[in-house]
Design brief:
By secondary structure, this protein is α+β, with helices and mostly antiparallel strands. It has one domain (24-114). 23% of the residues lie in helices and 33% in strands. It is built from 3 helices and 6 strands. The strands form 2 sheets. A 4-stranded antiparallel sheet has the order 2-1-3-6, with no helix packed on it. A two-stranded antiparallel sheet has the order 4-5. The chain starts with a helix and ends with a strand. The mean pLDDT is 86.
Length: 115
């Protein structure tokens, strides 16, 4: 009986410890395809299509949104609007360039802008 009890305890402990293992997700990139001079276009999640990292860097123009793959549900068409939920975007106007950059208003994602 002790052998079975010891084995059962080992199984229980293994399951308990494995439940604390952090899952690592890869990043999914949604590239902006709209008009950077329109706030409505920049804030419309349908204007971001799944694609490759654009290597954006800067602050004046909307470029891409990065989401963990664990928060993405594959759908067609592969847009930020169709594949994620709870993400809303906010556009910020830059008078020097006449363009809008993006930030995440709600949801779990990262916004990347370019110059």
């Amino acid at each position: 009986m002790k052998k079975y009890l010891l084995g059962l305890m080992a199984v229980i402990m293994a399951v308990a410890f494995s439940s604390f293992t952090k899952i690592h997700y890869s990043s999914v990139f949604f590239v902006f395809i709209g008009d950077v001079t329109s706030q409505a276009s920049v804030e419309n999640t349908a204007n971001y299509i799944q694609g490759d990292d654009q290597g954006c860097g800067g602050s004046n123009k909307a470029c891409e949104v990065i989401v963990d793959s664990g928060n993405v549900t594959p759908n067609i068409p592969a847009t930020l609007q169709n594949e994620t939920s709870g993400i809303t975007l906010a556009g910020t106007f830059h008078s020097s360039s006449g363009t809008y950059s993006i930030s995440i208003a709600t949801g779990i994602a990262s916004a990347v802008n370019q110059n």
